């Protein structure tokens, strides 16, 4: 038993000494990722690239104040060199795009100034030349939001004008109500001649017609009750005038006048409400207010310091990816090197077994992993300000251990099936490439079909990224399923490696 | 584990090892006794290394049987394997570890405890004269030093039986001699050694030698036995004064122990080669016979020991002739 342990630990000293003798490797393993993250923190702007944009305006409108205002409004998201990249025709702008002087050309047609008078929507064209699907989506999204903003701006202006017109309407309503009030008093006092004179003034002033017209222009339906009352009251005024002249009863007429006054009062109230509404509310009556329940205080304020937030967010993922890649590569090269170097022949003659060789190598690389992760995390926490909750230390250690042995399992599996170290490196790089795409490092797992998500879960780093983030950023312990997955990967890969390496180890 | 008294340490019986459709080793049989240095000699590719691998249990014979230390090596357990030491043909230790670290690894591989290993490593590094280089990386020491390190690593667990595969290939003659001195010391310590070599003259250091060619065992004999097989008998060289040569030849050719006399080429005047059955018996009697003629001035006598290269070439040439093969093997 003691001899078995001595044999297993033969590899610890051997592997650790071999790595200790490679200072460049150690620098690469520890300082490399720290420098990369530091550079990322220093250099990342925290936002999408600004697009160099050329603007094509209708001929002769280069210096139009409206164009100047338009460019000013879209300059928040587009970089526009007003001296060089305002064009009056499409060709030179597209040529600049093709010469990579511009990322985007935006063409404003003359018709956009007459859109309300013609009643036809106008196309604003965006021309770009981009292969990158992410950048393509970004350009199309920006174009969409820009047009939305322009539309809102135009709508805002129209609403402002309408509110001014409503002010005039209310003046008409006020005049009309004053005269109706006067008319009712005259009727009640049986001052028929004066009443007829007021009717004449009311007719001649045209206030009721103007009210009806204003309402129609401002979008009120011609079938609305107020408009209908106004129309019928025109007829009623004529009837009243006739009754006054003929000396008939006036009770019914007074009732109609009271009704009209009420209608005009309602109209005035409605107009008042419309006039006092903020045009911005009319244009954008709904706003989105999102609440994130995740406790992301540890990331810092992403709006004020996006670089820090991004560095803190990506650090656990980088750690997981680096740890997996390091372990896969070291283990991947390990067995095949013994085979190539000829030491396997020495092992076969010796009492060493395939099991002891594998377990010894697992032990040595696990120790190496613990040392490297400790140093790296210290650098990240004290150098980059990445959060680390001391209460999660045990969970962190357990997750690191499980991630390490699962990654080593994949590495040893690679090493047991390949026949040269260049093949081992190649396969390790494939695992890395797969990890970058499918682990949730850059692209969320939710973006993939369920069967691809399950394949991704076969990569230790998928669990490493999610749970390092959970531990380091959210102060939460990993789910039990994490350990089941990692344990499963570790066990299956170990058994397969043992089986295959054991066959190589066997006496022939 | 020891072979029982009177039992061979290693026994090969009609062993054949086939890879694909090619017999790399064919129908090899021998017994190796405890405490002897057993050499396996033959040209490159003759099957020496494969035979060693069969004896260490790395390979399993296609047909025939192998017994080492009284057991089939393919069924060795860890304890059995601790009795074997193995120095492979190539340097297979770790170039990025220093000499002592490589030794520690070898010791751990055989389960040598931490308490025992330090003294043992010191002794061995002294034995193979690598003490001064103990902190040097194995990749930075010379080829000869690497071989010695490999030998020390094979001995670190004090094996009873040591397999050494071409230890002297590609190294200078002085160092080769030193290796053989070390093997003799090991033999003196009671170890048994199986050593392969392509250098025919090294068979002189062995107790017994197996000669192999094309995967076949040609013969097994002691170095003297090989010489006798090549020359057909023992040979004495006798030199007399040139003027006395005729008389000396006359006397010796009549002597009953003399099988024949030859005048060697490129030898000093008065020299002759005298073929006898047994040199040790014949020499005093022939000197006495020459002394019967006081006029003969005998200047030099001795046993003729041609280089083993010559012996090997002679044996090979004779083996080319089918009728000679039976004679040699007889």
Keywords:
heterodimer, A: 508 residues, mainly alpha, Rossmann fold, Four Helix Bundle (Hemerythrin (Met), subunit A), five-stranded mixed beta sheet, 19 helices, 5 strands, 71% helix, B: 330 residues, Alpha-Beta Plaits, four-stranded antiparallel beta sheet, 11 helices
Summarize the helix and strand pattern of chain B as letters: EEEHEHEHHHEHEEEHEHEEHEHH
Helix content of chain B: 25-40%
Report the count of strand segments of chain B: 13
Query: What does the radius of gyration of chain A come to?
Result: 40 Å
Q: How much strand content do the residues of chain B show?
A: 25-35%
Main beta sheet of chain B: 6 strands, mixed
Major sheet: arrangement of strands of chain B = 5-6-7-3-8-9
Distance between the termini of chain B: 35 Å
Cα separation of the termini of chain A: 27 Å
Count of extended strands of chain A: 5
Order of helices and strands of chain A: HHEHEEHEHEHHHHHHHHHHHHHH
Interface with most residues: A-B, 27 and 33 residues
Count the DSSP helices of chain B.
11
Oligomer: heterodimer
The CATH superfamily of the largest domain in chain B turns out to be: P-loop containing nucleotide triphosphate hydrolases
Provide the helix percentage of chain A.
over 70%
**Taking all residues together, what is the mean pLDDT of chain B?**
88
Which runs of chain A of at least 5 residues are low in confidence (pLDDT < 50)? none
Largest sheet of chain A: 5 strands, mixed
CATH class of the largest domain in chain B: Alpha Beta
